[in-house]
Specification:
With 255 residues, this protein is an alpha/beta fold. Helix content is 42%, strand content 16%. It is built from ten helices and eight strands. An eight-stranded mixed beta sheet has the order 3-4-2-1-5-7-8-6, sandwiched between helices. Helix 3 crosses helix 4 and helix 7 packs parallel to helix 9. The longest helix has 24 residues. It is globular and about 40 Å long.
Length: 255
């Protein structure tokens, strides 16, 4: 299978911005094992700004664009160093691809991206994609990595997209406020009632939320790609997800 896995800032880092070593090490170990089993893995990773916040000892996520970009510059170095080191321990090579919205809206640049990522996969490399927050502004940004992951999954004709977040999946109500909220195991159509469940703006250091995940699901389902939302605190769920076993919320492809 060709599997695109998106990991959010809340999985990679503590609210302080410091690396969540346990989560990252288990994520890399699981992805490496899935690759060893013959799966083609693409990782879409948030966390550059969040890790930059920790590295620069800032009080929280910056509000102004120059400081966001500075934090991203510092954090992206830390992020890729960590991935290169950990994947290397399992004999896997990684390659970095940084994108902006303009790279997908321009046909030539989009084709160059696709040629590069396909070649990396052919060479047995695990591509790690992130938005280029160091130069992206509101005018050229993708906006969030849930959307970026969906674009990547559709571009590489993935079999499966997994969004690892800080929640177990899509619930009938906000589980943080309603103890009777129930996890929805399968969604086969994005209806107004499903959209109405997508409240919330994401974690303090991240940019995503359930609304962006529903939007990503709509995009992937139209292209025939299954998508699953699962809790990144337990990356080993990826084993069950890859086998089609119940885990999180699966948005089943339409084609």
């Amino acid at each position: 299978m060709r599997i695109v896995v998106k990991v959010g800032t809340s999985t990679l880092a503590y609210p302080t911005g410091c690396l969540n070593i346990r989560h990252v090490e288990l994520l890399v170990k699981t992805l490496s094992d899935l690759a060893n089993a013959g799966n083609e893995i693409v990782l879409v990773s948030s966390g550059a700004i969040g890790m930059g916040v920790g590295k620069l000892s800032l009080d929280g996520k910056p509000e102004d664009m120059p400081t966001k970009q500075a934090a991203a510059s510092v954090g992206q170095c830390e992020l890729m160093y960590t991935y290169d080191k950990l994947f290397g321990e399992y004999n896997h090579t990684v390659g970095q691809i940084l994108m902006t919205g303009a790279d997908f809206s321009n046909e030539d640049r989009k084709r160059n991206f696709e040629n590069t990522i396909y070649r990396l996969i052919e060479l047995g490399v695990i591509p790690i994609v992130n938005e280029n927050d160091t130069i992206a502004t509101d005018e050229i940004s993708v906006g969030d990595n849930d959307t970026l992951a969906a674009i990547v999954a559709c571009s590489v004709k993935a079999d499966l997209l997994v969004l690892l977040s800080d929640i177990d999946g899509l619930y009938t109500k906000d589980p943080h406020k309603n103890p009777d909220a129930r996890l929805i195991p399968v969604v086969t159509e994005i209806t107004p009632s499903i959209e109405s469940l997508a409240d919330g703006a994401g974690s303090g250091l991240g940019t995503g939320g359930m609304a962006t995940k529903i939007s990503a699901a709509r995009m992937t389902m139209q292209e025939g790609v299954d998508m699953v939302i699962a809790n990144g605190a337990n990356p080993q769920l990826l084993y069950d997800i890859a086998q089609g076993l119940p885990a999180g919320t699966r948005f089943a492809r339409l084609l």
